[in-house]
Amino acid sequence: MNESSINGNTEREQREQEKAMAVAANEHIRHQAETPIHSFDPDNSPAAKREAAERGIPKDLLPDFRNLGNKRGGLQTELGTSDVDQIKQALSAAQRKPVAPVKTSGHKRLSSGPRTPRTPRTPSSSQLPQQQQSRIPEWYRVGWTAFSTQPNPGGPIQLAAAENKTADPLENMVSFLFFSKWWGHSGAIFTIGVIFWLLGSLGGGFITFALGCLFVVTYSQTTSRRFRHQARDDIDRALTKLQFLELEKEPVEWLNSFLQKFWLIFEPVMSAYVIDNIDTYLVDYLPGFLDSVRLTTFTLGTKPFRVESVRMLQEPEPDTVCMDWVVSFKPNDLSHMTRKQLDNKVNPKVMLTIRLGKGMVGAGIPVLVEDMSFQGNMRIKLKFMSKFPHVKMVEACFLKKPHFDYVLKPIGGGLDVTNIPGLQSFVRDQVHAILDPMMYYPNVFAFDVDKFFSGELDITQANGVLAVTVYSTTTINARDISGQVNPYIRFYLDKAQELGRTSVQENTLDPRWNETHFLMLNNLTSVLSLELRNQSSGSKDRRIARAHFDLKDLDNDDDYSLEDMDLDLRHNGKPFGQIKVDMRYMPVSKPIPRDDGTVEPAAESNSGILRFTVHECRKLGSMRLNPYVRVMINGAERINTPIFKRNPNPKFERSGEVVVLDQTAVFIRVEVKDSISLAEDPVIGVWRCYLVDMIQAMETNPEGWFDLQYDNGDKAPGRIRLGFQWKPVVMTGLSEAMVGRGLYNPPIGVVRLTFWRARDLRNVDGVAGKSDPYVRVLSGSQIRTRTEVIDNNLDPEWGETQYVPVHSNKEDLKLEVMDWNAKTKDKSLGFTTLKMVDLVRQRTGDQEKNPDKWYEYVGKPVDQWVALKSSDKNEAKGELQYTAEFYPALALPKEPEEDENGEIPQVPNPVTDLHGEPIRYTPDDLIDLSVYNSGVLTVKIHEVKMPTVSNCYCQLLVDALMPQFQTQKLKGRTLTFNETGDAFVKEADFSRVAIEVKPADSDEKDDQKLGHWVDAVSSIVRRIQTSRRNGDEQEEGEWFPLLGTAIPGGWIRLSFDYTPLVNFTLNPDESLDNQGQLTVTLLDAKDLMAGKRRVKPSDKSGTSDPYVVFTVNGERVHKSATIKKTLNPTWKNETFVVPVQSRVTASFRIEVFDWNQFLGDIPLGSGGISIRGDFVESFVSKQVKIPLDGIAGVSGYVRVRFLWQPQLLIRKKTHTSVLGDQRTYTSMNMTSSPGNGSMLSPTSAATMRPPPTSSLRPPQAPPPITRSSTLSPAAPRNGASAPPVTPVSQHVRSPSQASSIVSTQDRRSIDTMSINEDALAAQQGDGTATGLDGVVMIYLIEARNLRGVDKSSGKSDPFVRLRVGKRQVHKTKHIKKTLTPQWNESVKCSVSAQPTPVNIKVKDYNRFSQSVELGQCQWNLWDLLRPQDQVTSMDRWLPLYPTGHGEIHVRIEFSR
C-alpha cells in the first residue's frame, strides 16, 4: 500500500469523525427550538448550501446584496498603465478603427440616419418625454410648498403642482371668509343674530324662537366640548414633554414589538444570505496559522435586538433628524418575553470547523460560538430628501466603546476558551481597533441610501466616467515631513472610500506623474478630493495636503471638460501649493427616448467600461485542491481571487472594472490555479478569448459557463462561470485634449498683455521698507513671463507689454503680483485670473466628420482694473490694471482622411487659412515660414547627455532674460526629458533662442549653469523649412553640443516647429531693434562761436576752447575732451557707448561749451537729433551733422558718427538691504558665435560659474551632429562703410573659426545685457571667444578714482582678488587709506584655448569685519588677447562696475 492511499484513508476518517460530532451537536439544538436550524454538509458547494437554507423560504424573498459589499477601487485600463502618452496613442488607434458590432442588451437599435451619434447629458425631469411627466395639472396645488415661500428642506420634488404660485387676491379673500377662525367665532355670532332678525321680521312665533335657542345651545355645547378637549390635549402634551425632559429618554416598545414579529420572518432570509456569502468573506480575514474555516451550523436565534431607549436631539438643519439609541442584543435576557416565547427560545449558535496547520499536518476542530450578547450607545442621524426613498443619508456611530460577550468552546470539551487569561481582552481590543476608525465617535459610518437605491453601486446604472489627468504639483515644502518624501495622489468623493491613486514618485519634492486615471460616476453633484500623501515604508502613510474640486463646474461646461487647472492644496487650512490637473467627464452611451415614442440608439464606440466577474468553479477535482483564479487582460493581472482551501467547488464572486480604450485589441486569459506552499502553483485549467468574441459568445450562453482547457488546447477538468457587463463610452474628445509631458498641443495664438500699474498693494516688508512688486504670468504651473521689479513702491507703474502663447480657449492665465526678495522666496501679493473665453471664441467647420476647428479674437480687448485675490481665493489688498488682446495663429484646414480604398485624396493647397488670411508659399508649394516674421517657436527637449552625473533641469529663453518654460528635474548622465515648450518670437530676423541646463537646486536668482545652447531663430526657421522640404518631420530631433560644461562632452537633442501669426504687426516701441546700445563717436565741429569774444569784446584772439556734453533723456552721459583755441575742433578717439531702453522715445541732445578757467564755461549752442530706426539703421554707422541753436548769433554744427546695436536691456534687481540700499551684482553675458547663434542670459558676476577650459569633442555615442547655420551680419547700406570702431560685446568666434580672423566690423550680434540704471554689465566681450593653450602673466599695477568707504577718513584700504576660470589665482596686499593704490604685483598661470573668464574684484580690507566690495570687472581673456592674430599682450585701464567706481590698470602677456 503506497503513502498516498494511507494519507487518503486518514483524511477520510477525520472527516467522518467531524461529521459525527456535528450531527450530535445539531440534534441537541433541534430539540430545544421550533425555529429552523440551518445545517448542511461543509463539503458542499456554496450553491448547495444556499439551496438547503432556502427550503421553506418563499421565492423572491431573498435579496441580492452582493453589490453592496463590492469595493470601488480605481479603474485601470487594458494597457496596464496610466501614462498619458500611451493612453492617447491607444485612443487614437481605436478611433481610426470601425466600431465592433456589439449588441446592447435591453435596447432596440434604430437607425438614426447619417448624423453623428451623440451622447447627451443625463436628462433631468424637465427633459423627460411627455408620457413620463406627472399627469397632475400644473394649476393644482399639492403639498404645503404650494402655499409657502419657504423651500423644501429635502429639495424640490420636480412637480409643478407643488411649486409656490403667485397669490390671487380674490382667492385670499374667499379663503379668509370661509376657512379662517374668524368665521368659526365672530362669523357664527353675526350669522345667528341676522337669522333671528329675519325670523322676527317674517313674523316667527315662540316655536321658531325655541328652535333657534336650541340651535344656539347645541352650537355652544359643541364649541365648549371641542375647546375643553383641545385644552386637555395641550396640557397632556406639556406634562408628557416635561416628564421626558426629566428622564431625557423615551421608550420605544412599539418598535421592539415590531422587531419581535418581523425577526421570525426575516431571520431565515438573513441566514440564507450569510450562508451564501460567508465562505467568500471568511477567506479575506483568515489568519495565517489557520488552513481553512468551514461553516456547518448557523442560527441567529429567536430573540431580536432591542432598542432600550431613544433620546431626540435638537438639530438645526430642517431636513435632518438626530437621535441617541441605546441598543442591546441579549438573548439570555428573559424579560419582555411571553411564556410561549420562553418555551420556543433559541440562542444564536454558530458552529465552525476550524482546520489548524497546513496540508497533511493539519486537523479539523469543530468550534461552537454561543451565548452572544451586545450593548452600546449609538447616535443615529437621518437626512431626508423629497424623492423616493425620502431618506438620503444615514449616519451611525458609537458614542463610546460597546460591550460584547460570547462563549467559544470546542464541541465535546465543554471548556470556554475565553476563560484563558488575556485571550478575551485581546479579542476585545482587536475588535475595538477595527471598529474605532469606522464607527467610534467622532468617526461615523455613512450610508448613502439615495445612491444605493439609484443603483450607483451597479455599473449598469453608472452614468459616466471621469478622466482625471494629474501632471504635477508645485515644489513640496518638506519642513513638516520627516524622512524621504515619496508623494502620491489618492482620489475620493465626498466622504466615501478611495476611488483610486497615482503611482508613487520616490524621493522627490517636485513630483510629476503625467498619468490619467478613470473614476466611475453616477452624477456631477459631488466634490472630488485629491489628497497628496507621503508613502512611508515603516509607518502609516501620512496626508500632506488636500485639494477639492466641485464636479458641478464640469456640468457647466459644454463638453464636460476643464483643462490646465491649478487646484489649491491646503495643509491644516493653510495654502500649501497647487496641483495641475485636467478633468473630462464622459457620459455612458445610453439610448434616448424620443417624443414620438421611438428610441434613439446609443452612440457606438470602441471604448467603454468592462466589468468582468468570476462567479464560481465546479468539479475541479480532488478535495485537496486550494483553488484561486487570476484574470489577465492583455497580459496585466486585473482580478486575483482569494484562495479557497480544500474546496473543489469554490464560489468567488469577485469582480473587477477596466476602462477599455480599444475593445478590438483586448485579450482575456483566465487561469485557475492550485495554491501550493513550497512550490510554484500549478495551473488547473485556463480559458482565453478576445473581448469581442466573448461578447458575442455570451449572447448564446447567457449563463456564462465555460469549459476549462490546458495551455496546449486539451480539455481540463472542471468548468468556470464568468460574467461581464459592457457600457460604451465615447472618448473622442479625450484623446484631443490630453497633453502629457511628451505631448503638445499646437498654439492657437498669442495673448498680448500690457501691465499698466497697480495700487494699494500689501506691504510685506514691514517697517524696513515697502514691497518690491512685479507681475508674473502663469499658465498652469509654468511661469511664462514677468515684468521688471519696481523698488519700494506700493503703487507701481510698469507700462510693459508681454506676449504669452496659448493652446486652447480654456487655458486661463494667472496674473500674480509678487514681492521680490533677494535671499528668500518671493511672496505673493495677490492674483487674478484672465479667462481665455473672454478673448477667444472657437469656430467649427461644417464638415459632418472631423470638422475643422479654429479660434478667433472676440474683437474687444480686456481692459480693466481688477481686485487681487489671495491664495485662499479671498479678496486680497490691492488692484491691478492691465490690457489683454488676442492674436490668432495660422490655422490650416485638416488634411483629408483615407477613403474606402485606403488612399488619401489629393487636394490643392488652400489659398487662405481658416481665418481667411492668404497663405504664402514657396515655389515648391511649402508654406514659406521665412516671410512670417512673428510667430510661436516650439522647442522639444528630447534628451541631454551630460559628461558627469547631474541633477538638473532645462529652461527655454527666447529674447528674454527670464525663462518662458522649464522642464522637470532629472538625475543621471543621460536625461530623457521629452518635454515641449514654446515662446513668442517678435522678430525672427533678430530673435535668438537659448536652452540652459541648470542645477536642480538653482532658480532664476541663481546664475549657476551646467551648460547652454544658443542659436538664431532665423537659422532654426531655415532648418525647419529644409526638413519639411526633405520630408523629415524631425521626430527624433538633432544633436547639438552644449557650451559651458565643466567637462567637455555635453550634448542636447532638440527638435523645432514654428507657427506663424496672421495679421499681426509689431509696435515699433516693442521691436527688438528699439532697445540696445548706441555707440557715439565725436568727430569734429565747424564754425563755432568765439566764446571769449562774447565775454570780452576786446579779445582779439577770436577763438574758443570747446568741449561737448551729451545728454540722453535729460541725463548727462558723456563729456568730451577740451580742444584748445579753435573754432573748428577735431576730436580723436572720442567714443562712448550708452544703453537706450527705447530709441523711439529717446531724446538725444548735445551742448557745446567754451572752457574758461576763471569766468566759468560759456555756452556756444545746443542741438538735438532723432535716433529712430528710420534715421539710424542697425549695425550701420552713420555720420550726421547736428546744427547748433539756442543762443543769439550761434553758428556752426557738430559732426558725430552713430552705430546702433540692438540688445535686450533689463533693469535686474538683485539685492535689497534692510535699510533700503540697493547693491547691484552686475551681469555677465552668455553668447555663442554667429555660427552657432548667440543669446545672452543674466549671470551674476558675484556668483557666476565661468565657462569650461577644455576643448569640444563629439560624444562617445555616434548621434548625428548637425551644425547650426551661420547668421550673416547685416551689410552696410547705401555704400556706407563701417567705421573702424570697437563696439562693446561684439568679439564673437565659434570653435570652428578659432583660427580665422574675424574683423571688428563683422562682429555684430544681437546680444542681451543686464544693466542697473545707467551701468553697463561688468562682463565685457561675449564670453565665447577662444584662443590658444599657453601661459599668461597678469600684472596688477594700480587703481584710481576708487570709492571711499571708511567713515572716519573717507578713504579705503584696497586690495585685489584675481580669479582665472574657476580658481582664485592671486590676492594682493592691501594699501592703507588711499583711493589711488599701487600694487605692482604679478601672477603667472596656465590657460587653455577655451573661453577663460578673468574676474578682477577690488575690495576694502577690514580686520574685524567682512571686506566691502569697491568694484569689479570681468572679461573673457580671449577678448583682450588674440594670439591667433599675433595680439599677445595688452596694457590698459579697465573700468570697474557699477559705473563710477573707478578704474584698474592691468597688463597681460601671453606666451606658448
Mean pLDDT: 76
The radius of gyration computed from the alpha-carbon positions, rounded to a whole number of angstroms, is 45 Å
Beta-strand residue percentage: 35-45%
Structural class: alpha+beta
Shape: elongated
Main beta-sheet strand count, sense and barrel state: 9 strands, antiparallel
Q: Give the CA-CA distance, first to last residue.
A: 99 Å
User: How much helix, percentage-wise, in residues?
Assistant: 10-25%
Could you tell me the number of beta strands? 63
Unreliable runs? 1-8, 31-35, 58-73, 103-135, 1095-1099, 1214-1323
Counted by DSSP, the helix tally is 17
Features:
1456 residues; seven-stranded antiparallel beta sheet; alpha+beta; elongated; nine-stranded antiparallel beta sheet; single chain
Task: Please characterize this protein's 3D structure.
- A hairpin with a 2-residue loop joins strand 17 and strand 18.
- The strands form 14 sheets. Strands 1, 3, 4, 5, 6, 7, 8, 9 and 10 form a nine-stranded antiparallel β-sheet that branches. Strands 39, 40, 41, 42, 43, 44 and 45 form a seven-stranded antiparallel β-sheet that branches. Strands 2-24-21-28-27 form a five-stranded mixed β-sheet, with no helix packed on it.
- The chain has 17 helices and 63 strands.
- Helix 2 (46-53) packs antiparallel against helix 8.
- The protein is of the alpha+beta class and 1456 residues long.
- The model is unreliable at 1-8, 31-35, 58-73, 103-135, 1095-1099 and 1214-1323 (pLDDT under 50).
- The relative contact order is 0.06.
